[in-house]
Amino acid sequence: MSSFKYLLLAGTLSLVACGGSSEKGDESLPSIPRCEQLSTLTNITTESDIEFLVESSYQIAQSGAIIARIANQDSAGFHFNWQQTSGPELILKSVSSPVLAIDPLETGSYTFSVTVNGKGLAAEQNIEVTVTGGLDNRLNVRSDHQVVQGGDVSYRVDRVDEQIPPELNWCIASGPDINLDISNIESPRFIAPDVGSDTISILRATANIAGSNSSSEVIALITHEQEIESQYFDKPVARTHAYRTDSPYAHQLQPCIYSNQLTTPCSIAQLPLIGQTDHHSEKEKIIDRLLVSHQWMGENFETFLNEMDPMSDFSLLLQSVTAIVISYDIRPSFYWVVTGAIYLDPNDLWLLAEERDVINEAPDHRAMFGNELNFIMPWRYVKDNQYVSYSTPREVRTARSLAEMSPELSSLLFHELAHANDFFPRSVHDSIQGGTLLDHYNRRTMAGELVSDKVSLQFPLYSDELKSLADVSFRGKAATAMQKAYSPADISHFFTGDSATDYYAYSTIREDTAMLLEEAMMSHRYGILRDVGITDKPDNPTAANIIVNWGQRGRIAEDSIQDRAVLVLNEMLPELDAKTLISELPEPIPMVQGSSWLENLTISPSSAASVKRGRLETKVPELRFSGDRHKRGQGLQAPMDMTP
To answer: What is the pLDDT of residues 141-195, one digit of tens each?
Structure first.
């Protein structure tokens, strides 16, 4: 293995600054100015085909980047793998990218090895950088990374003394013009412009901290990609790779599941449902079907299955998908029948602050739907009168435990996997042979054979008012004058007279079925109960200022809902005694009308555990609204169409 040592003080190597071609972004946003002093990266050639782009200096407590590339070639088609070989140990979370992001906390020499494979090339090279104590610069921006042209880019400035650094400004230090969304000044966003070749973008943040001017730069490698050919993935998707390179399906996953070149659904022969194969144990088969943008996402998912699924609920439900995609650009999570895969937002999977740093912060634009309506339907999961959803603001860099992460991911998986098992429960796997999953979905739908079809036929939802309102809240349809005039009391009347567990159930019969499985299994397996409420809608609503008109904890055990839940469980998890399971769930608890959503947190009878926990400071996460975690589970919904 060859190596190359780079000493930052040498200063004798050639410099390179990269530009770009035509810009493609939101023209309504400001194009930020060029910095008065531009930046360049140092180009380091080696005796191999690999060369490096490095920064002019690396300092402690400052995020940095090292970029590997093959001389005179774009990075598309090459596979990168980084390792640290010497120096104080770092937490590296972009090891499969051409851009290695580092965050050194100690001075000294650091050596990294990168292997590059693809296009007939197999090369390995070392690079050594020196980290110095540097200046007293307290400004730091995260996170350097690679992004495809047309992809969303977001950065975040570290807070100083828990405050946004004063006089914070942005400028372009190198690369193409950018229209930057600075509506959140500490977390700017932009759409990566189209580029004719891989292009470096460097943004610089400046601020006045304790009377001193500070600056920090952040790098994006904007990569040139093939023209989009797919009618399914018709917007740019992040680069992904098989979590296990030796998986028998490693080469089918990306082109069949998450590709801008997917023009025809892959056949069942190319990528069968996990449950249709028998070459490994259930969990091993699942891990073979992981497609990720960052290796840590697969590691965390594998750990979750091994440590947090003792009864194999998820291992069984996952038999009805073809693959699991976890990528930093997926928001919100969804299941899609055309590929047979589930797509997971990694916000539910991070454990370390360094992992959370790489997740894109692009908002879900559906947040504006239903703004003209006069009510809110919040939800939350609780246990022992406490929130179980561990949620800290993004500006707080912290770690969380697997136990703290588990409730969010568990409820998400129960919901998305309910869609997969609605369409293709294990009982029909033997009959799904030949053609595509879409072919079989169409046949089963026409015959009314889906689990949700059976639920709708035997136990329909009746409220036409809520079905019409769901079009407003979850599809963005304009509200009528009558709908705008509905009060929380009107909504309470519509909802309590029917048998849905949640407002989102009215978006489609598929979501109705998914909500039933999700809430039943969260209560049964973990003793975690779902709250649903109907409140007023003040300006800037918070848990403390919205007033409950009606609410209920553990609605899944309501008499009018139990038979619906039993049907779903019998179809999707026949190993369970569904009737006994549902009958043993805790009785629903009514909320106190006229009290706030937060005040209604403590409505369960006190226990030793809840009294003990009550002495601790209650963590109050942001408000959650019905349907906010999922795309609408409609069979033919295009995955890149964000309409829920």
So the answer is: 999 999 999 999 999 999 998 999 999 999 999 999 999 999 999 999 999 999 9
Q: What is the DSSP letter of 347?
A: G
Distance CA 299, CA 305 (A): 10
Model confidence pTM above 0.70: yes
Spatial separation of the C-alpha atoms in residues 84 and 111, rounded to whole Å: 6
Q: Which two tokens stand for residue 255?
A: 């082109």
Number of C-beta neighbours around residue 244 at 10 A:
17
Contact 273, 320 (CB under 8 A): yes
Distance between CA atoms of residues 341 and 417, nearest Å: 10
| H helical segments located in 109-201 | none
262-301 core/surface letters (b: 16 or more CB in 10 A; e: else):
beebbebeebbbbbbeeeeebbebbbbbbbbbbbbbbbbb
* CA–CA distance, 633 with 254 (Å, rounded to integer): 22
DSSP class of 160: B
Neighbour-count burial of 325, counting CB atoms closer than 10 A to its CB (0-12 exposed, 13-18 middle, 19+ buried): buried
Neighbours of 212 (CB within 10 A): 12
Question: Do residues 192 and 26 make contact, with C-beta atoms less than 8 angstroms apart?
Answer: no
Any idea where the domains of the chain sit in the sequence? 2-223, 241-362, 367-393+400-625
450: CB partners within 8 A, 6+ apart:
422, 423, 444, 510
CATH tag for 2-223 (out of 1.10.555.10, 2.60.40.10, 1.10.287.3510, 3.20.20.10): 2.60.40.10
